[in-house]
Amino acid sequence: MNILITGGAGFIGSHVVRRMVKNYPDYSIYNLDALTYAGNLENLNDIEEFSNYTFLKGDITDATFINSIFKKYAFDGVIHLAAESHVDRSITNPLEFVMTNVIGTVNLLNAAKGLWKDNFENKLFYHVSTDEVYGSLGESGLFTETTAYDPNSPYSASKASSDHFVRAYGETYGMPYVISNCSNNYGPNHFPEKLIPLFINNIIQKKSLPVYGDGNYTRDWLFVKDHAAAIDLVFHKGKNHETYNIGGFNEWKNIDLVKLLCKIMDTKLNRSSGESEKLITYVKDRPGHDLRYAIDASKINKELGWAPSVTFEQGLEKTIDWFLENEEWLANVTSGDYKEYYAKMYQ
Ligand code: NAD
Ligand code: TYD
Questions:
Q1: CATH code, 226
Q2: What separation in Å is there between the alpha carbon of 315 and the centre of ligand 2?
Q3: Active-site residue among 59, 131, 163, 290?
């Protein structure tokens, strides 16, 4: 099988690429990535020499290029992760999110349809999406696969739109597809613009920890390697035209999570107890901030037998250790443009 993985130089994509390259030596894995600020080939140093791995630099908004690689490599399956993925950036520049997340996805669907139209057998378009398409929950309840879409941010609106296009190609043209909607990931290689890696970096640097609003927002957190395992499973065993919710059964209020992070890091960094908590600073809230996300992942658990393999405490410890052991990676991604982004966003 020739498998195209898009966005494979990013956070989740790099874990998916590594897993697929190592677990399936008979597959040819093609990683297509535009290497935006979020894409980093350093994430894949350890597998770049594998004979079943090829990196293709390119942009999913470029239809001509996308059609040409489908023709050249005759992909049998697509695992589509390339996206603009940060809510705060979507508030500043929504159009970029429409271009990559909506137009880019439709370009891929068109190219797949063009290549597979005479025979969809043993072909699959796997679209990786987010729980944010379901909008915000109150204090109780869980998102299921039948929860109505109700996106609130330009990011989630663009992902919701791309999900709809994938479904529409399934209904209209018979495109074989699966979609998964996952909760917040964390782990090694996470770009430090999202809550957990940003706060780990700031704690290391003894910089303030900017908690939005009152900090009483709730997210469900999943270790990235458990998401990669779920993606592998859904790709191989998921039912055609089905959606699977993926989550960690692991809800945390932001402020409680930040305090736990501070506590673990004080120990790891040999700092006195309570030292990092003093860095917490409440800042202006994010506009349209979703109160709570929580996933009911019982379908993937019952039908495909997937469950998270690590507890949050274990995953967080692995994550912190990785960041402490990979200072060079962190220094590289926080130099240059990152400084400008940080200054604009937080000062
Ligand atoms: P990321 O921002 O770390 O990586 C995105 C990757 O896509 C980068 O390597 C980037 O270079 C590439 N990319 C961006 N625009 C591109 C373009 N026009 N053409 C080709 N490549 C392009 O994102 P992530 O956190 O790894 O998320 C991956 C996917 O998973 C996204 O679709 C996201 O919506 C989804 N998702 C993320 C989370 C999460 O918590 N991070 C949770 C659920 C779902
Ligand atoms: P984030 O990691 O951006 O993921 P998402 O918005 O996709 O859930 O944010 C997670 C939570 O942390 C969210 O409620 C916003 C909050 N947050 C802060 O309080 N401060 C920050 O600097 C960041 C980046 C996020």
A1: 3.40.50.720
A2: 18
A3: 131
Assigned domain for 276 exists: no
User: Domain tally for the chain?
Assistant: 1
**Residue range 19-44, pLDDT digits in tens:** 999 999 999 999 999 999 999 999 99
In a domain, 347, yes or no: no
User: 40-79: per-residue pLDDT in tens?
Assistant: 999 999 999 999 999 999 999 999 999 999 999 999 999 9
Digit-coded pLDDT (tens) for 231-249: 999 999 999 999 999 999 9
List beta partners, residue 210.
281
DSSP string, 258-322: HHHHHHHHHHHTTPPTTTGGGGEEEEPPPTT---B--B--HHHHHHH----SS-HHHHHHHHHHH
222 lines ligand 2 (CB under 6 A): no
* pLDDT above 90 for 336: no
Helices (H), the chain: 11-23, 63-73, 87-92, 94-97, 104-116, 154-173, 195-205, 224-237, 254-268, 298-304, 312-325, 327-333, 337-346
Q: Residue 53: enclosing H or E segment and its boundaries?
A: strand 53-57
Residues spanned by the domain of 83: 2-191+221-251+290-311
Tell me how far the alpha carbon of residue 48 lies from the centroid of ligand 1, in angstroms.
Answer: 20
CB 16 within 8 A of CB 81: yes
In a domain, residue 175? The reply is yes
Asked if the model's pLDDT at residue 327 lies above 90, the reply is yes
Cross-strand partners of 221: 184
For residue 184, tell me if it sits in a domain: yes
